[in-house]
Protein backbone atom coordinates (compact mmCIF):
# COMPACT_ATOMS: atom_id res chain seq x y z
CA UNK A 1 0.00 0.00 0.00
CA UNK A 2 1.17 3.59 -0.55
CA UNK A 3 3.39 5.20 2.05
CA UNK A 4 1.80 7.19 4.84
CA UNK A 5 1.82 10.99 4.68
CA UNK A 6 5.00 12.37 6.15
CA UNK A 7 7.07 9.31 5.22
CA UNK A 8 10.72 10.19 4.56
CA UNK A 9 12.99 8.35 2.15
CA UNK A 10 16.73 8.99 1.78
CA UNK A 11 18.40 7.77 -1.41
CA UNK A 12 21.71 8.32 -3.13
CA UNK A 13 21.65 11.55 -5.10
CA UNK A 14 20.00 10.69 -8.46
CA UNK A 15 21.47 11.09 -11.94
CA UNK A 16 19.50 12.15 -14.99
CA UNK A 17 20.80 10.44 -18.11
CA UNK A 18 18.73 12.52 -20.53
CA UNK A 19 18.33 16.24 -19.97
CA UNK A 20 17.78 19.34 -22.10
CA UNK A 21 19.45 22.33 -20.44
CA UNK A 22 19.05 24.52 -23.54
CA UNK A 23 21.50 27.39 -24.03
CA UNK A 24 21.89 31.11 -23.49
CA UNK A 25 20.21 32.59 -20.40
CA UNK A 26 17.60 29.82 -20.37
CA UNK A 27 20.18 27.38 -18.99
CA UNK A 28 20.46 29.24 -15.68
CA UNK A 29 16.70 29.12 -15.11
CA UNK A 30 16.63 25.37 -15.77
CA UNK A 31 19.59 24.63 -13.50
CA UNK A 32 17.75 26.25 -10.58
CA UNK A 33 15.51 23.16 -10.71
CA UNK A 34 18.11 20.62 -11.81
CA UNK A 35 20.89 21.17 -9.29
CA UNK A 36 18.89 20.41 -6.11
CA UNK A 37 17.73 17.06 -7.53
CA UNK A 38 20.59 15.55 -9.50
CA UNK A 39 24.28 14.88 -9.13
CA UNK A 40 24.86 14.48 -12.87
CA UNK A 41 22.89 15.19 -16.02
CA UNK A 42 23.59 13.87 -19.50
CA UNK A 43 23.20 17.06 -21.51
CA UNK A 44 21.50 16.71 -24.87
CA UNK A 45 23.36 18.25 -27.82
CA UNK A 46 20.43 19.27 -30.08
CA UNK A 47 21.08 22.98 -29.78
CA UNK A 48 21.14 25.50 -32.63
CA UNK A 49 23.72 24.86 -33.99
CA UNK A 50 24.02 21.25 -32.79
CA UNK A 51 26.97 20.21 -30.63
CA UNK A 52 28.81 18.16 -33.25
CA UNK A 53 32.47 18.62 -32.23
CA UNK A 54 34.56 18.12 -29.14
CA UNK A 55 35.31 21.85 -28.94
CA UNK A 56 31.59 22.69 -29.03
CA UNK A 57 30.86 20.14 -26.29
CA UNK A 58 33.56 21.55 -24.04
CA UNK A 59 32.31 25.09 -24.64
CA UNK A 60 28.76 24.01 -23.80
CA UNK A 61 30.00 22.31 -20.63
CA UNK A 62 31.71 25.55 -19.63
CA UNK A 63 28.48 27.46 -20.27
CA UNK A 64 26.57 25.03 -18.05
CA UNK A 65 29.07 25.45 -15.22
CA UNK A 66 28.88 29.23 -15.59
CA UNK A 67 25.06 29.07 -15.48
CA UNK A 68 24.81 27.13 -12.21
CA UNK A 69 23.29 28.76 -9.13
CA UNK A 70 25.97 30.96 -7.59
CA UNK A 71 25.37 30.05 -3.94
CA UNK A 72 27.81 27.10 -4.11
CA UNK A 73 25.22 24.76 -2.60
CA UNK A 74 25.59 22.04 -5.22
CA UNK A 75 29.23 20.90 -5.27
CA UNK A 76 28.25 17.44 -6.52
CA UNK A 77 26.59 18.57 -9.75
CA UNK A 78 28.37 17.67 -12.97
CA UNK A 79 27.18 17.86 -16.58
CA UNK A 80 27.97 14.78 -18.67
CA UNK A 81 28.53 15.66 -22.31
CA UNK A 82 27.74 13.90 -25.58
CA UNK A 83 28.20 14.79 -29.24
CA UNK A 84 25.44 15.06 -31.79
CA UNK A 85 26.05 12.20 -34.22
CA UNK A 86 25.80 13.08 -37.91
CA UNK A 87 26.50 11.35 -41.22
CA UNK A 88 29.84 13.20 -41.22
CA UNK A 89 31.08 12.29 -37.72
CA UNK A 90 34.56 10.83 -38.13
CA UNK A 91 36.50 8.25 -36.10
CA UNK A 92 39.09 10.97 -35.49
CA UNK A 93 36.45 13.18 -33.85
CA UNK A 94 35.40 10.24 -31.69
CA UNK A 95 39.00 9.71 -30.58
CA UNK A 96 39.30 13.39 -29.72
CA UNK A 97 36.03 13.32 -27.76
CA UNK A 98 37.01 10.21 -25.83
CA UNK A 99 40.31 11.82 -24.84
CA UNK A 100 38.36 14.76 -23.36
CA UNK A 101 36.03 12.57 -21.30
CA UNK A 102 32.95 12.99 -23.50
CA UNK A 103 30.65 10.10 -22.68
CA UNK A 104 29.24 9.26 -26.09
CA UNK A 105 27.14 10.40 -29.03
CA UNK A 106 23.43 11.04 -29.44
CA UNK A 107 21.78 9.48 -32.47
CA UNK A 108 18.78 11.41 -33.75
CA UNK A 109 17.19 10.06 -36.92
CA UNK A 110 17.01 13.11 -39.18
CA UNK A 111 13.70 14.88 -38.61
CA UNK A 112 12.56 12.66 -35.73
CA UNK A 113 12.22 15.33 -33.03
CA UNK A 114 13.20 18.85 -31.95
CA UNK A 115 16.30 20.23 -33.69
CA UNK A 116 17.04 16.90 -35.38
CA UNK A 117 17.38 18.24 -38.91
CA UNK A 118 21.12 17.56 -38.81
CA UNK A 119 20.57 13.99 -37.62
CA UNK A 120 21.54 10.70 -39.20
CA UNK A 121 19.95 9.87 -42.55
CA UNK A 122 21.22 6.27 -42.62
CA UNK A 123 22.85 4.58 -39.64
CA UNK A 124 25.20 2.70 -41.97
CA UNK A 125 26.89 5.99 -42.84
CA UNK A 126 27.98 6.16 -39.20
CA UNK A 127 29.50 2.69 -38.99
CA UNK A 128 33.15 3.90 -38.95
CA UNK A 129 32.35 6.32 -36.10
CA UNK A 130 30.35 3.66 -34.26
CA UNK A 131 33.23 1.19 -34.51
CA UNK A 132 35.53 3.77 -32.95
CA UNK A 133 32.97 4.44 -30.22
CA UNK A 134 32.85 0.72 -29.51
CA UNK A 135 36.64 0.58 -29.34
CA UNK A 136 36.74 3.60 -27.02
CA UNK A 137 33.99 2.31 -24.73
CA UNK A 138 31.73 5.28 -25.48
CA UNK A 139 27.93 5.23 -25.27
CA UNK A 140 25.51 5.47 -28.17
CA UNK A 141 22.39 7.25 -26.94
CA UNK A 142 19.48 6.62 -29.27
CA UNK A 143 16.24 8.40 -30.03
CA UNK A 144 14.78 5.06 -31.03
CA UNK A 145 12.10 5.98 -33.53
CA UNK A 146 11.91 5.95 -37.31
CA UNK A 147 10.45 8.90 -39.19
CA UNK A 148 7.94 6.93 -41.27
CA UNK A 149 4.77 5.03 -40.48
CA UNK A 150 2.13 5.68 -37.85
CA UNK A 151 3.45 7.95 -35.11
CA UNK A 152 2.29 5.48 -32.43
CA UNK A 153 4.23 2.63 -34.08
CA UNK A 154 7.55 4.27 -34.84
CA UNK A 155 9.39 2.79 -31.87
CA UNK A 156 8.54 -0.86 -32.65
CA UNK A 157 9.43 -0.26 -36.30
CA UNK A 158 12.78 1.19 -35.24
CA UNK A 159 13.54 -1.90 -33.18
CA UNK A 160 13.04 -4.16 -36.18
CA UNK A 161 14.59 -1.98 -38.88
CA UNK A 162 17.49 -0.32 -37.04
CA UNK A 163 18.05 -1.59 -33.52
CA UNK A 164 18.38 -5.32 -34.14
CA UNK A 165 20.82 -4.95 -37.07
CA UNK A 166 22.81 -2.35 -35.11
CA UNK A 167 23.22 -4.61 -32.07
CA UNK A 168 24.13 -7.52 -34.33
CA UNK A 169 26.81 -5.50 -36.14
CA UNK A 170 28.29 -3.92 -32.97
CA UNK A 171 28.08 -6.51 -30.20
CA UNK A 172 30.39 -4.56 -27.87
CA UNK A 173 28.97 -1.07 -28.39
CA UNK A 174 27.30 0.31 -25.26
CA UNK A 175 23.79 1.48 -26.16
CA UNK A 176 21.05 3.37 -24.35
CA UNK A 177 17.58 3.32 -25.86
CA UNK A 178 16.39 6.62 -24.49
CA UNK A 179 12.86 7.44 -23.30
CA UNK A 180 11.31 4.12 -24.32
CA UNK A 181 7.54 4.36 -24.58
CA UNK A 182 6.11 0.99 -25.61
CA UNK A 183 5.67 -2.55 -24.34
CA UNK A 184 7.58 -3.71 -27.42
CA UNK A 185 10.61 -1.69 -26.31
CA UNK A 186 10.41 -3.10 -22.79
CA UNK A 187 10.27 -6.62 -24.15
CA UNK A 188 13.15 -5.98 -26.52
CA UNK A 189 15.43 -4.51 -23.84
CA UNK A 190 14.74 -7.47 -21.56
CA UNK A 191 15.76 -9.85 -24.35
CA UNK A 192 18.72 -7.85 -25.69
CA UNK A 193 22.40 -8.39 -24.88
CA UNK A 194 23.74 -6.81 -21.70
CA UNK A 195 25.25 -3.84 -23.55
CA UNK A 196 21.72 -2.56 -24.33
CA UNK A 197 19.74 -0.75 -21.64
CA UNK A 198 17.00 1.90 -21.58
CA UNK A 199 15.96 5.08 -19.84
CA UNK A 200 12.35 5.88 -18.93
CA UNK A 201 10.81 9.31 -18.37
CA UNK A 202 8.47 10.24 -15.56
CA UNK A 203 5.87 11.61 -17.99
CA UNK A 204 5.64 8.31 -19.86
CA UNK A 205 5.08 6.62 -16.49
CA UNK A 206 2.41 9.09 -15.39
CA UNK A 207 0.38 9.74 -18.55
CA UNK A 208 -1.07 7.97 -21.58
CA UNK A 209 -2.43 9.32 -24.85
CA UNK A 210 -5.91 9.85 -23.38
CA UNK A 211 -4.44 12.53 -21.12
CA UNK A 212 -3.04 14.21 -24.23
CA UNK A 213 -6.12 14.01 -26.45
CA UNK A 214 -9.41 13.34 -24.63
CA UNK A 215 -11.48 16.46 -24.06
CA UNK A 216 -9.16 18.63 -26.11
CA UNK A 217 -5.50 18.71 -27.08
CA UNK A 218 -3.13 19.48 -24.21
CA UNK A 219 -0.01 20.88 -25.87
CA UNK A 220 2.13 20.74 -22.75
CA UNK A 221 1.81 16.93 -22.75
CA UNK A 222 2.88 16.67 -26.38
CA UNK A 223 6.26 14.97 -26.59
CA UNK A 224 8.27 12.66 -28.83
CA UNK A 225 8.08 9.77 -28.53
CA UNK A 226 4.39 10.56 -28.19
CA UNK A 227 2.42 9.24 -25.21
CA UNK A 228 1.05 5.78 -25.93
CA UNK A 229 -1.91 3.65 -24.78
CA UNK A 230 -2.45 2.48 -21.21
CA UNK A 231 -1.09 -1.01 -21.90
CA UNK A 232 2.25 0.58 -22.75
CA UNK A 233 2.25 2.86 -19.70
CA UNK A 234 1.62 -0.13 -17.45
CA UNK A 235 4.45 -2.07 -19.10
CA UNK A 236 6.81 0.85 -18.45
CA UNK A 237 5.75 1.02 -14.80
CA UNK A 238 6.40 -2.71 -14.37
CA UNK A 239 9.82 -2.34 -16.00
CA UNK A 240 10.88 0.73 -14.01
CA UNK A 241 9.78 -0.67 -10.65
CA UNK A 242 10.96 -4.23 -11.23
CA UNK A 243 14.47 -3.78 -9.90
CA UNK A 244 15.93 -4.78 -13.27
CA UNK A 245 19.26 -3.03 -13.95
CA UNK A 246 18.25 -2.70 -17.61
CA UNK A 247 16.08 0.36 -16.86
CA UNK A 248 17.04 3.67 -15.28
CA UNK A 249 16.12 7.33 -14.94
CA UNK A 250 16.25 9.68 -17.91
CA UNK A 251 13.77 12.53 -17.67
CA UNK A 252 13.97 13.96 -21.18
CA UNK A 253 12.89 17.18 -19.48
CA UNK A 254 12.56 19.42 -22.53
CA UNK A 255 11.34 22.96 -21.91
CA UNK A 256 9.90 25.20 -24.59
CA UNK A 257 8.57 28.71 -24.16
CA UNK A 258 4.82 28.77 -23.61
CA UNK A 259 4.10 30.60 -26.86
CA UNK A 260 6.03 27.93 -28.79
CA UNK A 261 3.89 25.19 -27.26
CA UNK A 262 0.50 26.91 -27.44
CA UNK A 263 0.48 27.43 -31.19
CA UNK A 264 -0.87 25.84 -34.34
CA UNK A 265 2.26 23.69 -34.64
CA UNK A 266 3.56 23.34 -31.10
CA UNK A 267 7.00 22.00 -30.16
CA UNK A 268 7.45 18.52 -28.70
CA UNK A 269 8.69 18.41 -25.13
CA UNK A 270 7.51 18.17 -21.53
CA UNK A 271 9.13 20.18 -18.72
CA UNK A 272 9.64 18.03 -15.62
CA UNK A 273 12.89 19.30 -14.08
CA UNK A 274 11.04 21.23 -11.36
CA UNK A 275 9.84 18.01 -9.66
CA UNK A 276 11.30 15.11 -11.62
CA UNK A 277 12.51 12.93 -8.74
CA UNK A 278 9.28 13.63 -6.87
CA UNK A 279 7.26 12.45 -9.89
CA UNK A 280 9.21 9.19 -9.98
CA UNK A 281 8.65 8.75 -6.24
CA UNK A 282 4.93 9.19 -6.81
CA UNK A 283 4.91 6.42 -9.43
CA UNK A 284 6.98 3.99 -7.35
CA UNK A 285 4.87 4.73 -4.28
CA UNK A 286 1.67 3.99 -6.22
CA UNK A 287 2.76 0.39 -6.79
CA UNK A 288 4.43 -0.13 -3.39
CA UNK A 289 7.93 -0.13 -4.87
CA UNK A 290 9.72 2.66 -3.03
CA UNK A 291 12.41 0.15 -2.10
CA UNK A 292 13.33 0.03 -5.82
CA UNK A 293 13.50 3.80 -6.33
CA UNK A 294 17.13 4.35 -5.35
CA UNK A 295 18.58 1.84 -7.80
CA UNK A 296 16.43 3.15 -10.66
CA UNK A 297 17.35 6.78 -9.91
CA UNK A 298 20.89 6.51 -8.62
CA UNK A 299 22.57 3.17 -9.42
CA UNK A 300 21.66 1.45 -12.66
CA UNK A 301 22.28 4.42 -14.94
CA UNK A 302 25.65 5.20 -13.36
CA UNK A 303 26.66 1.56 -13.69
CA UNK A 304 25.69 1.48 -17.38
CA UNK A 305 27.71 4.64 -18.09
CA UNK A 306 30.69 3.38 -16.11
CA UNK A 307 30.46 6.19 -13.56
CA UNK A 308 30.79 5.87 -9.78
CA UNK A 309 27.59 5.82 -7.79
CA UNK A 310 27.01 9.01 -5.88
CA UNK A 311 28.08 9.26 -2.26
CA UNK A 312 25.79 12.24 -1.65
CA UNK A 313 22.15 11.74 -0.66
CA UNK A 314 18.73 13.24 -1.25
CA UNK A 315 15.84 12.99 1.19
CA UNK A 316 12.26 12.93 -0.06
CA UNK A 317 9.17 13.35 2.07
CA UNK A 318 5.59 12.44 1.25
CA UNK A 319 4.32 15.98 1.53
CA UNK A 320 2.30 17.55 -1.30
CA UNK A 321 3.84 20.52 -3.09
CA UNK A 322 1.99 23.00 -5.25
CA UNK A 323 3.25 23.40 -8.80
CA UNK A 324 3.19 26.99 -10.13
CA UNK A 325 1.31 27.60 -13.35
CA UNK A 326 4.50 28.82 -15.03
CA UNK A 327 8.19 29.35 -14.38
CA UNK A 328 10.51 31.97 -15.82
CA UNK A 329 12.31 30.66 -18.89
CA UNK A 330 14.96 33.16 -19.73
CA UNK A 331 14.25 36.88 -20.22
CA UNK A 332 10.69 37.65 -21.24
CA UNK A 333 9.34 34.11 -21.58
CA UNK A 334 7.63 31.47 -19.47
CA UNK A 335 7.56 27.68 -19.46
CA UNK A 336 4.54 25.63 -18.37
CA UNK A 337 5.65 22.73 -16.14
CA UNK A 338 4.14 19.29 -15.81
CA UNK A 339 1.18 19.43 -13.38
CA UNK A 340 0.91 23.17 -13.85
CA UNK A 341 -1.37 24.63 -11.15
CA UNK A 342 -1.78 21.22 -9.50
CA UNK A 343 0.14 19.19 -6.90
CA UNK A 344 2.90 16.60 -6.68
CA UNK A 345 2.51 14.20 -3.76
CA UNK A 346 6.19 14.12 -2.79
CA UNK A 347 8.70 16.89 -2.01
CA UNK A 348 12.39 17.29 -1.30
CA UNK A 349 12.82 17.46 2.45
CA UNK A 350 14.15 20.75 3.78
CA UNK A 351 17.42 20.72 5.71
Which terms would index this structure?
351 residues; alpha/beta; TIM Barrel; 3-stranded antiparallel β-sheet; 15 strands; globular; Amidohydro-rel; metal ion binding; dihydroorotase activity
Protein described:
This protein has 13 helices and 15 strands. With 351 residues, the protein is an alpha/beta fold. It has an eight-stranded parallel beta sheet.
CATH architecture: Alpha-Beta Barrel
CATH superfamily: Metal-dependent hydrolases
Report the major sheet.
8 strands, parallel
The domain tally reads 1
Q: What is the strand content?
A: 15-25%
Number of helices: 13
Task: Give a count of the beta strands, DSSP E runs of length 2 or more.
Answer: 15
CATH class membership: Alpha Beta
Order of the strands making up the biggest sheet: 2-3-4-5-6-7-8-9
Mean pLDDT: 96
Low-confidence stretches: none
Q: Give the topology string: H per helix, E per strand.
A: EEHEHEHEHEHEHEHHHEHHHHEEEEEE
Helix/strand/pairing class, anyone? alpha/beta
Topology-level CATH name: TIM Barrel
Label the overall shape.
globular
Keywords: Hydrolase, Metal-binding, Pyrimidine biosynthesis, Zinc
Family: Belongs to the metallo-dependent hydrolases superfamily. DHOase family. Class II DHOase subfamily.
Pfam families: Amidohydro_1
Protein name: dihydroorotase
Explain briefly what this protein structure is.
Helix content is 32%, strand content 17%.
Write the layout of secondary structure elements.
Layout (H helix, E strand, L loop, with lengths): L7 E5 L2 E5 L6 H9 L5 E4 L10 H13 L11 E7 L6 H9 L4 E4 L19 H10 L2 E5 L10 H16 L4 E5 L4 H9 L4 E5 L1 H5 L2 H5 L16 H11 L6 E3 L8 H4 L14 H11 L6 H6 L1 H6 L7 E5 L3 E2 L4 E2 L5 E2 L7 E2 L2 E2 L3
Parallel strand pairs: 2-3, 3-4, 4-5, 5-6, 6-7, 7-8, 8-9
Antiparallel strand pairs: 1-10, 10-15, 11-14, 12-13
Helix pairs in contact: 3-4
Amino acid sequence: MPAAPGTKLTIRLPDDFHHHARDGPKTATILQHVCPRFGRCLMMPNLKPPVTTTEMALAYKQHIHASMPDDKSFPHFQPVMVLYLTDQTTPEEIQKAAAQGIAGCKYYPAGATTNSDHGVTDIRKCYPALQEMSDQGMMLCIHSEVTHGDIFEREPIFIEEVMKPLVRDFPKLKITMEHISTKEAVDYVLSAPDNVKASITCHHLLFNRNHLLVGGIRPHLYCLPILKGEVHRQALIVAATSGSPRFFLGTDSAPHAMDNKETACGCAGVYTAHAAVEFYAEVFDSVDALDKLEDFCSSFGADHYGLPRSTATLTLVKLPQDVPKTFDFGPGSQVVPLRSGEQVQWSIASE
